[in-house]
Amino acid sequence: MLVDTHCHLDAAEFDGDRAAVADAAMQAGVGLIVVPAVERANFGAVASVCRDYFGCHAAYGIHPMYVEHAREADLDALRETILREAPVAVGEIGLDHFVEPRDELRQAFYFGAQLQVAREANLPVLLHVRRAIDPILKQLRQCRVPGGIAHAFNGSRQQADEFIKLGFKLGFGGAMTFPRASRIRELAATLPLDAIVLETDAPDIPPEWKVPQDAERRARNTPDQLPRMAQTLADLRGITVQEIAEVTTANAIAVLPGLARIR
Fold it and tell me: What is the pTM (predicted TM-score) of this model?
């Protein structure tokens, strides 16, 4: 069995065939899927997907790219949703210092507030860390939470080691499949295997084999691609895909204990 630790199965890109996508993932051996929210407005959609499709588990949070429309009342709604729905994590939360325009102070406020929510609820977090790893690490040291996952990790080995010290796993997926992604592939090959989890970020970050030749077309990633990503990781590390599946699944359940709940 494989675990997709980050898949936006509630996204509009899946509205036409969500059931088929979920079934294809299950048939491919992806037994568990973590579905993170991005704003208060989609908490209900995430909850619905996780009720409707076996093996799907929710996380709730406000993504840094959605804080422009967030209100402090949304933090109360987050607390209420956590109490009602018992998610496996708070997420997707974090900082994004890539997108323009952005309000870094607003991002930092909502990130810090959601770390407090996670701490109160004793839940791990799913982190968005694009171009913002050092300020994220700083806030994590100030507000300790029960670990979590640094999603789509693309930092240095030193930064990776700092996350690991704080009880985090590092998420690898489609970006790792591109031969030119030398830094990500080096990390995937050399980090302690017990620090790695797999993810698709579907419908985003498609693997190399899903990117169309026509640059104007947008590829849609799907969770059934995870086994082939696992094979890429196995090839990079020189071990079997069966070992990758066993270890990354154990890693995911260790850092997100709620995945072990039977629904």
Answer: 0.97
